[in-house]
Amino acid sequence: MALLMDGGRIPPRWLEKKPVRPARSQDRYDSGAECVEIALINNMPDAALEDTEMQFMELLDAASGEIPVRLKLYSLPNVPRSDRGQQHLGSFYLEVDRLWDSQCDAVIMTGTEPRQPDLRQEPYWPALTDVLDWAEGNTASTILSCLAAHASVLHSDGIPRHPLPDKQFGVFESQRVLDHELTRHAGRPMGFPHSRWNEVREDALLSCGYDVLTKSSQAGVDLFVKQKKKSLFVYFQGHPEYGVRTLLKEYRRDIKRFLRRERETYPTMPQGYFDAAATQLLIEFQETAGAHRREEQLVFFPEAVVAGSLQNTWQSSATCVYRNWLQYVLTKKAETSVFAAMAASYARVPRKRSAVS
């Protein structure tokens, strides 16, 4: 089923890849019970903004199967943006205030690169928490990725995130620790990419009523959930939406920061991601870059050769979880529609007047 997009707001990179049809009012699935309507609130920094929207579109397209999915793109205010980033948002994104009166079944919200040690000091914090509060009572389910997941548990339950000694970076295998409809038919083990400097801990989550579904011996808690009013909140500390080259791009970006002396230490190589030949090439580059610490060294970074050996080992797991999630949202939407129809029918039944003695 083709992904439906809101009106003419279809990013050109996706149009080049897929023949996406704009959603119009006359479409059969425009707002019917058979269609899942999703708000994607993309807060990623400018360097990853367009890549992230593509990743989620590709994942939703692969997971949707026969379920029509209508997608609208939204942005939070006060996330730092360049002129180019603002122009892209103005062309293809809606302001988040437009969300309050929308017919939205589910929300997906990404994180962004933090600039404050306390997330509550970030300039976008009030808008982010407004979305979280609204989603609890107005959606069937809400997906929160990485920093957005950390922000949500901090806001609703006061659960802090803890700095890690090094970046949690790579593809980590997770084991299912609790049966849930979101992980039905998923393989064992499940592996997802992670890229973060902080974590929320299992004991704190469990004490506040969260259900941990998957966790890794190396990366800790991966996927966890909690029912909040009407909405099932779904949390990923990792990034199942990542494309095959995303971690490579992040690694190259971190190396560039090292060469420009924006960070003191050479970045750790992502785990579980490169094969032996690619790893050796990257070790050799690291030795050269460390001895000749100049940005010009990046021209020798073996990106093309390494990229050719990469495999998306997490794609099947990510598609399975998102397919289960879409089916969950559709089922909850149908249940709500049936209940509303029954309530309306009951309201139309004439009442007999009681006899007056």
What does this protein structure show overall?
By secondary structure, the chain is α/β, with parallel strands linked by helices. It has two domains: 270 residues, Class I glutamine amidotransferase (GATase) domain (Rossmann fold), CATH 3.40.50.880; 62 residues, no CATH class. Helices cover 38% and strands 21% of the residues. Strands 1, 2, 3, 4, 5, 6, 7, 8, 9, 10, 11 and 12 form a twelve-stranded mixed beta sheet that branches. α2 packs across α10 and α4 packs across α5. It starts with a strand and ends in a 9-residue tail after the last helix.
Write the layout of secondary structure elements.
Elements: E1 4-6, H1 12-17, E2 21-23, E3 36-41, H2 46-64, E4 69-75, H3 83-92, E5 94-95, E6 106-109, H4 125-138, E7 141-145, H5 147-157, E8 162-176, E9 190-199, H6 202-207, E10 211-216, E11 220-228, E12 231-236, H7 246-259, H8 276-291, H9 303-307, H10 315-348
Parallel strand pairs: 1-2, 1-4, 3-4, 3-6, 4-5, 6-7, 7-12
Antiparallel strand pairs: 8-9, 8-10, 10-11, 11-12
Structural class designation: alpha/beta
Number of domains: 2
Provide mean pLDDT, rounded: 90
Order of helices and strands: EHEEHEHEEHEHEEHEEEHHHH
CATH class of the largest domain: Alpha Beta
* Unreliable residue stretches: 25-31
Instruction: Count helical runs.
Output: 10
Helix content: 25-40%
Count every beta strand, where a strand is a DSSP E run of 2 or more residues: 12
